[in-house]
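Researcher: Let's run the pair from yesterday's discussion. Sequence first, then tokens, for each.
Model: Starting with the first of the pair.
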Amino acid sequence: MMKYTAAVLTLLSVAVAVSAEETADPKVIPGKLNVHRYEGPKDCDDDDKIMAGKFVKMHYTGSIHESSEAGEKGKKFDSSLDRGNTFDFQVGVGQVIKGWDVGLVGLCKGVKANIVIPPDMGYGDQGAGADIPGGATLNFDVDVVEISGVAPPGPNLWKEIDFDEDGKLTKDEVEKFFQEKHGNGMPDGLWDNEDKDKDGFISWDEFGGPKGTNPSEAEL
């Protein structure tokens, strides 16, 4: 995904400000990013407001929007509620799709909103897995649980992916992680990029994600 600076995201958020206003019967403008807050505060202090660079914890349910020209209308493809854990990320640094990086800016802690994301701000012409075909318009029902300007302790993804704790990652382990955590398979090109020596495994040194302390060193 492309990375967007805080300044650019702030400008882009202004473009969706009108559609972010609460209305009794929100009208979705085709091809545009639409944000409809249906519960929670409209105004809040900056400490409780999503801005580019802040760290957010939220629940979401994603589905194919009724206006979508591709995919099964109304079909749910992913939900953090099914996993029982919030989805935690930093806004405005390209960790998520552009529709989230832009559409969430300005929402307050405690807000529930529907965000309708056009293909060019979602997964584009390529799509993402079997349930999100290329060209799909997406609907996300989001619940903003927590907002912070300070990064939380980093996750140890290595420990989460190395299911058998043998000190190396297999394709099956990485695929299983993405299916369980994100509801989609491993992103294209990730394995080739991580398995740098092409031995069929990802070593701790090769792994590019957050990984804590080398397990072999921790045992010493």
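Model: Moving on to the second of the pair.
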Amino acid sequence: MNAHAQQGRYGVFGGRYVPETLIAALEQLEVAWEEASSDSSFQSELADLLEHYVARPTPMTSAPRLTNIVGGAQLWLKREDLAHTGAHKINNTIGQELLAKRMGKKRIIAET
């Protein structure tokens, strides 16, 4: 658990605001993530999926007319709309799926 969570985001009440029935699952998830985040094969598979399935990294596009409208600050747009699903949400979902697979889970409810 990271230092911020150990100290308790909500003071003496702890670091999680979730129903008690979810605590065991969240602790299991935390352990799995700690292991996966330091596993080079997990990171490599995630990077490969993001590159070849999601089409990341998405490009940066200069916005010269918008730059002129706002007074000269150079503006660039990060084109997440060009990702496979047309939104940024797939980035998180792919990571959740890969971690769930690693944990042997058969179903996912993912809120991105």
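Researcher: Give me one sentence on the second I can quote.
Model: The longest helix spans residues 23-37.
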